[in-house]
Amino acid sequence: MIRLALRRDRIWWPAWIFVLATQVVATAGAYESLFPTAQSRLQLGPTMGRNTSLRAMYGPAFDLSSPGGFTAWRMGGFVALFVALMSLLAVIRHTRAEEEAGRLELLRSGVVGRHAPLAAALLVTIGANVILAVIVVVGLSFEGLPFAGALALSLAFVGCGLMFSGVGAVTAQISENARPARGMAASVLGVAFLLRAVGDSTGTAPWLSWLSPIGWTQQVRPFAVERWWVLFLPLVVGASLIGLAVALEGRRDFGAGLRPAPLGPERAARGLSSAAGLARRLQRGSWLAWTIGVAIFAGALGSVANGVLDILRGSPQLEEVFRRMGGGQSLIDEFFAAVLPLMATVATIHTVQAMLRLRTEETEVRAEQVLGTAVTRTRLMGSHLVHAVASPPILMTIIGLSAGGAYAVSARNAGAVWSVLGGALVLVPAMWVFTGVTMALIGFAPQRSAAAWGVLAACGVLGQLGPILQLPDKVLRISPFANVPALPRADFEIMPLLVLTLIAIALTAAGIRGFQRRDIG
Amino acid sequence: MTAAITASRLTKSFGTTKALDGLDLTVTTGEVHGFLGPNGAGKSTTFRVLLGLLRPDSGEATLLGGDPWRDAASLHRRLAYVPGDVNLWPSLSGGEVIDLLGRLRGGLDERRLKSLLDRFDLDPRKKGRAYSKGNRQKVALVAALASDVELLILDEPTAGLDPLMESVFRDCIQEERPRGRTLLLSSHILSEVEHLCDRVTIIKDGRVVETGTLAELRHLTRTHVEAELLGPVPADLVGLSGVHDVVAGGSRLTCEVDAGHLGTLLERLTTVGVSTLLSAPPTLEELFLRHYATAVPSANPPQLRKPA
Lengths: 521, 308
Prior knowledge:
The complex is a heterodimer of chains A (521) and B (308).
Chain A: H1 2-8, H2 12-34, H3 38-47, H4 52-58, H5 67-94, H6 96-101, H7 103-108, H8 116-142, H9 147-174, H10 178-202, H11 213-219, H12 232-251, H13 275-314, H14 316-326, H15 331-363, H16 367-371, H17 377-411, H18 416-425, H19 428-444, H20 451-469, H21 473-476, H22 495-517
Helix pairs in contact in A: 2-5, 2-8, 4-10, 4-13, 5-8, 5-9, 5-10, 5-11, 8-9, 9-10, 9-11, 9-12, 13-14, 13-15, 13-17, 15-17, 15-19, 15-20, 17-18, 17-19, 19-20, 19-22
Chain B: E1 3-14, E2 17-28, E3 32-36, H1 43-50, E4 58-63, H2 72-76, E5 79-82, H3 94-105, H4 110-119, H5 133-145, E6 151-154, H6 163-176, E7 182-187, H7 190-196, E8 199-204, E9 207-213, H8 214-219, E10 222-229, E11 243-249, E12 252-258, H9 262-270, E13 274-280, H10 284-292
Parallel strand pairs in B: 3-7, 3-8, 5-6, 6-7
Antiparallel strand pairs in B: 1-2, 1-4, 8-9, 10-12, 10-13, 11-12
C-alpha cells in the first residue's frame, strides 16, 4: 500500500519538499548579503520585528540579529503553513479521494485491513515531513547555522505536518466526498493562521497564538534559546487526532461519511439553460475563491508596503541597502513595480485554470454530452474562453484597488490608489498571452494542454530568479511579464502592450481554429 | 421507408490502431436498431463519428438527412445521445443536469420526466459526485427519454443498471415504438437486443460482419434440436444435408439443423417415432459467439460427438 502511494506521488512529493526546503535554506543564505554589517542586523529587531503588519504576516520575532533567527522568523510560519497544507492534502488524497473514486474498493476487497489505507497515507505523509526536516537540517548546517536551532525548526515543521495529517485524517472520515473534506481541513488551517496573526499583532491577546498549531511552530523559538517542550503540543494533539480518525473509521461503512452529502436543487435554475450558463456555474466557485483570495493577499501587501517604508525611514542604513537593491527613485513605486508582476503571475493561475476547464470537460467525457445537444463547438469553447479573457482585467483591477487602497489608507495618500491600479492593469495583456497559449495548446496539442502550467511556471521562475542570476535582458524578455512597462516606477508605453495583445489574439484565434477542426475526446 | 442514419465505408484510425475499417450502417426511420460488438469493435467510435465529434478518415455518413460534421448543432436539436460512460458535473444535482441537457436539446416533456424519475427510482436532488455509475447512467437516460427528439442514440445504455432497472429500461423502449422515434442502441447484452430491436448490425474490428432483421439473421443460423425417439437413432442422420453436430446415444439425439432443413430432419425422425422433441431457435448469444469466439461451446461433452 505504501509503495502504491509513493508511486502515485513520485512527482508531487519531491516538488513540495524541494520548493519548501530551498525556500528555508535560501533565506538563511541571503541573510549575509542582505544585512552585511552587525549594526544593520541589530537594527532589524526594533524595526522589522516591532512592525505590526509584519508581525501579523510572519509572526513574532525572537532574534533577528542572527541568520538562524531571521530565517525562523521570515520562513518559519510560512513553511509551517505549507507543510500543513501539503500534509492534509496528501492524507485526504490517499484516503477519501481514493474511496470516492472507487479505487480503494478494489484494494479493500483484497487482503488489506480496514485501517490499512489510512495508516499507509499517514506513514507516507509523516515520512515526507521527516525527509523535509532532514534536508532543512543538512541545508542549514551547510550554511553554518547552529545544529540545535536547525533541528528545532525542522522538528517544529514535522510537528505541524503531523498535526495537520491528523486534521486531514479526521475530516476525511466526516465527509463523504474529498472536496468538502479538503475544505474543512483547510478551514482549520485558515483559522489557525488567523488566530496566530491576531495574537501576534495586537499584543493584547498573545494567548491566541497559543491556540494555533502554527503559533506553536514559532513558540519553539528556534535559534533563540529553543523551548523544546513546545514540540510536545503538536505531537500530543496530532496523535490524538489520528486516534480519533481511526476510531471514526471503525464506526462507519465503507464509502459513507459521518455526515451525509448535502442535497442539491431538484430543478435547474433558469440561468442554467445554455452552454454559457453551465460554464458560469462551473467557473463560479473558482471565481469566488480567487477574487476573495487576491483581494486579501493584495490588501495585506498594500498595508505592509507602508510598514516597509516606515522601517526604511527609521533607518538610513537600511534605506541605503534597499536603494542599492532597487536603484529607483521612489522606494514605494519600486516596491509595487516589483510586487505587482509577481501578483499577476499568481493571478494568471486562475486564467490558465479557467481556460483548461474546457479541456477537463473534454477529458471527463462531459463535453461530449453537451456537444451531443444543439450546442456548437464554438459555443462550448466560447463559454469557457470568456472566463479566461475576463480573468486578467477583473483580478488585476481587484489587486490594484485592494493593494493601492490598503496602502493609500495606511499612508494617507489617496492618489496612490490610481498609480497602483495603473501598475496592475498594464500587466493584463501579458496575462492574456497565457490565455492564448493555453487555447492554442487545447486546439492543437490537446494531450499536452497541461504544458500551459509549465510555460507559466517557467515565466514565473524566470521573473523571480532571472534578475538575481543576472541573466541577459534578451532571456528575461521571453516572459511576457518582463515586456510590460514597470509602472508605477517606469514610464507608460503603449507599444509593448499592443504587441502582447496581438500575440494573445493570434494564439487564441489559432487555438479556436484548431479546436473547431479536430476530433473531440 | 427513409433512412435516419446511413454510413458507408467509414474508416477512422487512432495512431496505428484502426478503429473503423470500412463500416456500413443503415438505420431506417422508426426502427429500433441494435448495434452489437465486443469491446473495442468500434461501436463508440461509430457513434462519435455520427455525432460529428470525430471526423472520419474516409467514407460518408448522413444523419437525419444532414452531414453529421457540418450540420452538427442543428441535427443535434433533433436527437438525444447518451454516452457509454456517463460522467456528471460533480457540483450539479441530477435534476439540474436533466433540465440542462433537456433545455440544450430544446425542451423536455414534463409529464414524461416525472413518470421516468418515478419509474427509474431516481432522486434528482443528489449531487453528481454522489451518484453511483448506474445512477449517473439513469440521469442521462431520463434526460434523453424525456426529450422531445426523433432519434435516440444510446451507447451501452444498460451497462451500469441492475436487472430491475434494466427491465424498466426495456419497458420504456417498448413504449417508444408507437411514438415513431428511431432508436440506435449499442450493447453487448444480447438478450436485450433480442427483446428490443427490429434490426441488428453486428460489427467486429471496425467492420460489419452481419446485418439484418432478427429473422434474417436466424436464416444464417442453426436450430438446436433435442429428441427422445421411440427406437434407435437412424445411422444415416449423420450424412443428411443441413444436419450438423449429431450426437446419438441409443434413442436420444441432439443436433444442429440449418434453417430450412428442419422439415427433412423431422420427416426422417417420424419414421422411427418421436416421444419428446425440443427445438430452440438460436439466441443472439450463439450468433455472437459464432463470430467472435474461436469455438462454439456445446451443451454436450465433446467425447460423445460423432463426426458430422
